[in-house]
Task: structure prediction
Amino acid sequence: MIPELGHFALVLALVLALVQAVVPMIGANRNRFALMAVGRPAAQGQFFFILVSYVCLTWAFIQSDFSVQLAASNSHSATPLMYKITGVWGNHEGSLLLWAMSLSLWTVAVTVFSRHLPEAFVARVLGVLGWVSAGFLSFLLVTSNPFDRLLPGAGEGRDLNPLLQDPGMIIHPPLLYMGYVGFSVAFAFAIAALLSGRMDAAWARWSRPWTTVAWVFLTVGIAVGSGWAYYELGWGGWWFWDPVENASFMPWLLGTALMHSLAVTEKRGAFRSWTVLLAISAFSMSLLGTFIVRSGVITSVHAFATDPKRGLFILALLVIVIGVSLLLYAWRAPRLGGGGSFSFVSRETALLGNNVLLSVASASVLLGTMYPLFLDALGMGKISVGPPYFEAVFIPLMTPVVVLMMFGPFLRWKDDDLLAAVRKVVPAFIASVAIGVGTAFALDHVTWRTVLGLALAAWVVLASIQLLAGRFTERAGAAMGARLRSITAAWWGMWLAHLGVGVFIIGVTLVGSLNANLDVKMQDGQRAELAGYTFTFRGVQDANGPNYDAARATIDVSRGERTIATLKPEKRLYLAQGMPMTEAAIDIGPFRDVYVSLGEQVSDGTWIVSIYYKPFISWVWLGCLLMALGGVFAVADRRYRRLAAREAAVATNQRLA
Amino acid sequence: MKPRSKRLMLIGGGVALLVAAVALVLSAFQQNLVFFHTPSEVAEGKAPVGKTFRVGGMVEDGSIRREPDGLTVSFAITDTAKVIPVSYRGTLPDLFKEGKGAVVQGKLEADGTFRASEVLAKHDENYMPPEAAHAVEQASKAAATLSQ
Result:
């Protein structure tokens, strides 16, 4: 009964999505406030019904109702409660439901935080979001009903893929989806602007916080996913250039470009058409990502579906969304106008340069991800494009991005003197090169990659310090507190996020240059040495869990005479699917991780052990978190609230008049 | 400078940057493509020696053998028609088993052994790496044509 209720709620949600898609749009075109006002309640009602549907599905998982096909394939009565709940999205249908729910949540957020915007604009935004939602809900209902029954019901479930039974997987998909789907708001704002022909600084200011929040979610989501891969896949890698990772990275790159382009449109009125195009592209990449991950065109841990009908449906959805928005763009964008002019040497140019580079980077990921799929689909042979390609592309593309990223803030808007600006940063630049070379020598690891990475990181840190110092001395004479207060939250956000890039580069460079690993056959009492640490094998015990059997090794890690940690890596066998799993054990430190995973048993009491020494790996994620924190600061800026209050007053007056 | 020539400079600079970036991407792409060959193709000498490529198929039953050092593994990949000996040093994926699909990436040695730098197996019990499935399918098609 409850699954049917969930199914029915989903149908109702689709009906409301269609109402939300059609009625406010008509209202906006005919300037009828009564019709426009339908948007908000329709969106909120839609969210309610999707939530009901989602809760019903979760209920089937918690109750181990194995007459529901989805629960039978992805849960087990012995699965821990937490993984029963997260198992809901550990499969194709459930994760699409989560997709639809995050879209609906974003839409509700728009209905709540848009009181200060003109009614017609909000109506169009809600209409666009309604269309997207209707597309996804019908996809769910037509091809991927999560409530399909299994008759007769299964006696026992087949359990969730053990790789997904992990704390990281509890938060990774929701965060990532909130990020992915969040770009739909920026997209809807852009389409609404094209439809209304209104595209000004105010529009950019409304879009900015939404884009930034989506970007923050996506950043944290990607970082968590990377952390999961690091400790769950058992060999210490943190990024694999896997199509699924690329699917989330492409919208991230374009989203980053969009945030910066929006900044220019808001402050200077320039880049209008470019900003709209980026908003369309970023969301298209999110949809493409969904297609790549969900259609089964690639096989990876994320690809649950291999039903061609589904792939076709998403592809059609993709073509419609991209096609319609580009047509609209081609038709309307020429009317948007050029906006503020600027000279060759200006902050605008620096931002434009980075925008172009980020877009090319995104396109290069697209090429590397999609080209093999195309060839395969056309029957022209199978190829694969691995990490060497992406590394060969990203180092030269990102180096100028990082240099410009720290040089741009020293330039004034509109027009500046190149020589004067260069003179400001020359000391920091020379010092960075010196630090890069010097540190590489000190580490006794002189390769051009190490030198380049360290120099770039030093450049980011030194230039950040110089920027902050400049900001302080600007108001010489004022009290310390007053000087601090004069710096806006948005500025701190920029500063933190850029510093985060520096921290990230330090992590990537050092873990790439200095990591060490050793595969070794060990038995009780045997020792191995790596990077100055001694690892002593203390045998293996049984350690069975609720839905798996495991062998747990004990390995003492010591440095000199001092014992640092006792690591207990496991080899698990998940019973329902007969699937083995490696559970690594990590001693996490601020400057290095020591990582141990248990391989195969070679003979009785003898095991293969993989040992990894990963210097500065936490800095990779710390850098991502700093970037995300920067985004949070930027959104928290007071001027958004101040301006929102003023616009709300104007909007109310308009309505009354 | 006149606004017109300023704009031209800006556009010219942008286009130059774009062209350079695209050239970089395409050349990196060309150099780093990894091709896929079935064991039959390798046996026929169609695969390059000394260049990285991928081979997929089933791990032949009874072929997994560990060298005395305990770390180097040798096994054979087959598409049911031809068999390619593979040697690999490192940890094998959890789901690497005899009689199951696997894809190996590495280089062909002059003696006909494939030295793998990477071994990919399936992610769960149902899934077969598409390259492995493809290789077996090709071989059975070839066998069907021969027997006709």
About this structure: Chain B has two domains: 1-32, 35-147. Strands of chain B lie at 33-37, 53-59, 65-66, 72-78, 83-89, 101-108, 114-121. The mean pLDDT of chain B is 81.
